Q: What sequence folds into this?
């Protein structure tokens, strides 16, 4: 199958859905004439014109608020917030305007909006924050984190067609990743996690940019005769709890890995979903979390490696869980 | 001051606008009394003194136009056709409340009447209004959005971001600032160094206008001019309606305002201003205004009886309409 990079797959999703549905439009900083800082909206202006591909002022709050308003009257906005760190400015509009509109109108109005945003992962304290857990705490929002180009395209198409607001977290790692992507339009559902590797000794749950790390750790340990099941969540809301619970019932061991800060990270929710499920009595070892230890992500390469989880950290955590019998 | 009747208004319109203002004031006062007595669980942010703004701005809007009231713009609801009973249901959180008991009356929407629910975040609706207007324009309609907020909201970042964006996009929005001189208890003179919020319109390259917010016909005229401009693609307008809140921000607030200021504004009661004009024109006399108020009180009495007898929402309402599809997976 044809291969694309993640940013190209996302761009194709946008172009196909804009061609398919005249209500869809794209708005954000640098998305039109420039084609997006990471080329996710490349050539959309040429294809769909300035009424549907809109370069905006720097105004994250108004951008999301305007997306909410347009969605309320029947449009399908795709709002780009250039970096996840900037989404902090739009929190009121996301948490209060977008997430609550269906509820306060008792279903008579709704907000079919996608907010796309990017986590660079490293490089600057202000471009590297993994903030997905915040949004999982707000009823009314869906939180989606694609890992690979195939899922990126299918999940973005699902997000645009979704009747509720979706916060869609992209990563620089995803943009750079190449992978097979069908050329036709297709959707990937949010609520079915991807079991990337089947295994029997331990379950590793991850999402977004740390999934390749989990796969690499699994490969290394396979060479040592340890069988790892790797589960990539496609969305945190809705969370495919069942797949995780069933896996842990089988393996009896769980390690969760994510880029976000451990304290209050979504990993804690994954762990709790085992603690209060039938899988609890199948546990053979304490559950491990591999995550940011609770620090900003510093600029220097000599420093940021201590802030971000690594394959070595993950392998060590899995070995630790394997040491229990 | 407007010496002549607004050109777009018939005598019937003027009498009706008077009735709407009387309705709003009677409702507010009665609802506050019932709230104080414990009969109505939700309080109100009284708009007494400001009735001309919401009535004048909403009167004559068309089906397909949208409004986004502030938490104080009760008049937007009445003028677009919400009934006394509907708002009492909302205040009492009954099963018949438009939100199914999920929200208060002031944060409720009535989509079929072109009213969107504003959030509880002061100024938070201004960007949403820009987006509604943008959407209406993208759809090729000539509908408009009228958004209400106070002087306090005009100091929020959202005001700046949303007005700038609306101007850039030529969004058909009318931003109606009800400058009642106080953000809760903080005087506008403390919160900004300018006297006229209208000054800010120039910063966005937007048409701005100062309007006598106590004169319902002046508000209506200015709004209709802005609406006409918006309908033909000439972009948004900022209307600063100078007005005054005759009551505290919320009944429990003990506000200490200069007596001279209070007296000056109380002498400019918007209902009295229009009523005087209608009396001079021979369209109404005092007895007719009393009758209007009595009709509202009668309706209130029969409505409260119905609302008090109404069923409360089924507990299931807590869990509905959070997402399109109700599922345990989404709420667990």
A:
């Amino acid at each position: 199958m044809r291969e694309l990079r993640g940013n190209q797959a996302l761009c194709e999703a946008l172009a196909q859905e804009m061609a398919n549905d005249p209500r869809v439009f794209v708005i954000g900083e640098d998305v039109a004439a420039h084609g997006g800082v990471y080329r996710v909206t490349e050539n959309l202006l040429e294809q769909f014109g300035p009424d549907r591909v809109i370069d905006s002022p720097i105004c994250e709050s108004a951008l999301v608020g305007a997306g909410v308003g347009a969605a309320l009257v029947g449009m399908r906005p795709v709002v780009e917030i250039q970096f996840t760190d900037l989404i902090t400015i739009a929190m009121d509009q996301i948490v209060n305007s977008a997430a609550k509109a269906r509820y306060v109108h008792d279903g008579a109005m709704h907000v079919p909006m996608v907010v796309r945003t990017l986590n660079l992962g490293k490089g600057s304290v202000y471009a590297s924050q993994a903030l997905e857990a915040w949004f999982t705490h707000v009823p009314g929002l869906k939180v989606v984190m694609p890992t690979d180009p195939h899922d990126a395209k299918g999940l973005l198409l699902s997000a645009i067609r979704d009747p509720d607001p979706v916060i869609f977290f992209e990563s620089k790692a995803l943009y750079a990743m190449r992978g097979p992507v069908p050329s036709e339009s297709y959707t990937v559902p949010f609520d079915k996690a991807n079991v990337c590797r089947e295994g029997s000794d331990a379950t590793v749950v991850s999402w977004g940019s740390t999934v390749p790390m989990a796969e690499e750790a699994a490969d290394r340990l396979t060479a040592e005769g340890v069988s790892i099941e790797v589960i990539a969540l496609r969305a945190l809301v809705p969370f495919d709890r069942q797949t995780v619970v069933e896996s842990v019932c089988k393996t009896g061991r769980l390690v969760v890995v994510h880029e976000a800060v451990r304290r209050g990270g979504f990993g804690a929710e994954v762990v709790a979903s085992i603690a209060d499920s039938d899988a609890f009595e199948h546990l053979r070892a304490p559950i491990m979390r591999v995550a940011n230890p609770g620090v900003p992500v510093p600029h220097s390469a000599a420093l940021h490696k201590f802030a971000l989880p690594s394959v070595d950290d993950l392998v060590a955590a899995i070995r630790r869980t394997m040491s229990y019998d | 001051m407007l010496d002549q009747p607004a050109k777009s208004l018939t005598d019937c319109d003027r009498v009706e606008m008077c009735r709407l203002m009387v309705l709003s004031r009677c409702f507010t006062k009665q609802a506050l009394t019932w709230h104080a007595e414990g009969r109505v669980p939700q309080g109100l942010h009284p708009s007494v003194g400001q009735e001309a703004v919401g009535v004048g701005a909403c009167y004559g809007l068309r089906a397909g136009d949208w409004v986004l009231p502030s938490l104080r713009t009760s008049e937007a609801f009445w003028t677009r056709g919400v009934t006394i009973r509907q708002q009492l249901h909302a205040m009492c959180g009954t099963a018949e409340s438009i939100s199914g008991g999920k929200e208060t009356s002031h944060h409720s929407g009535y989509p079929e009447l072109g009213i969107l629910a504003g959030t509880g975040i002061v100024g938070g609706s201004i960007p949403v209004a820009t987006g509604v207007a943008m959407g209406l324009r993208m759809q090729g309609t000539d509908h408009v959005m009228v958004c209400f907020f106070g002087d306090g909201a005009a100091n929020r970042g959202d005001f700046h971001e949303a007005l700038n964006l609306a101007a850039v996009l030529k969004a058909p929005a009318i931003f109606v600032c009800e400058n009642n001189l106080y953000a809760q208890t903080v005087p506008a003179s403390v919160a900004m160094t300018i006297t006229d919020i209208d000054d800010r319109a120039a910063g966005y390259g937007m048409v701005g206008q100062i309007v006598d917010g106590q004169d319902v016909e002046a508000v209506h005229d200015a709004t209709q001019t802005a609406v006409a401009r918006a309908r033909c693609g000439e972009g948004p307008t900022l209307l600063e309606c100078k007005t005054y809140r005759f009551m505290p921000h919320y009944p429990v607030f003990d506000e200490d305002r200069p007596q001279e200021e209070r007296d000056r504004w109380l002498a400019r009661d918007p209902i009295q201003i229009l009523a005087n004009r209608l009396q001079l024109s021979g369209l109404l006399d005092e007895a007719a205004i009393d009758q209007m108020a009595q009709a509202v009180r009668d309706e209130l009495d029969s409505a409260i009886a119905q609302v008090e007898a109404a069923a409360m929402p089924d507990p299931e309402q807590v869990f509905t309409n959070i997402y399109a599809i109700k599922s345990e997976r989404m709420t667990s």
Remarks:
- The longest helix of chain B spans residues 11-36.
- The two ends of chain B are 59 Å apart (CA to CA).
- Chain B has one domain: 20-245+261-331.
- Chain B has a mean pLDDT of 95.
